[in-house]
Amino acid sequence: MRGQWIEFLTGTVVLVVAIGFAIVGVQRAGLGGGAGGDYTLTASFRSVEGISVGTDVRMAGVKIGTVTGLSLNAQTFLADTEITVAEGIELPDDSTILIASEGLLGGSFVEIQPGGSPFNLAEGDAFLDTQSSVSLLTLLTRFVTGGGGE
To answer: How far apart are CA 109 and CA 41, in angstroms?
Structure first.
C-alpha cells in the first residue's frame, strides 16, 4: 500500500513539472494569448529573404514584436508582411521598417527606426518607408563583375 502512494505522489510531481515546462515553453515561443494589447501593422517589401513567421521585430536592439504573416501580393508582386508590436510601444507614422542582418553569417531580423512625426501608427496601419533585405550573393556578384547596379 505504501509503495502505491509513493508511485502516485511521484507521478503527480512529474506531471506538475511537465505542465510547468509546457507553460514556460508556450510563453517563450510567443504562442500564448498574452495581455491582448499587442497591435498589428503591415509593410510591403521587394524581398523578405532571410525572415519568416516568428522572426523578431526589434527597435534599438530590443525585441518589441514578431513577424506574424508573410504573403505575396499578386497585384504588386511585393511581399506583404504582418507584424505585431507590443502594447505600449507607440511608433511615429513616418517610421522606417527594414530587414537587417545580425552579421555576415548571422540571421536576419526586422528593425524599426522611429521617425519624428507627432502622429502614431494605429492597429492595421502600414509602414510607408520600407527597405528590403540585401542579398549577399548579389552584392558579391556586383563586386566581382564590377557592376554598379544602375
So the answer is: 16
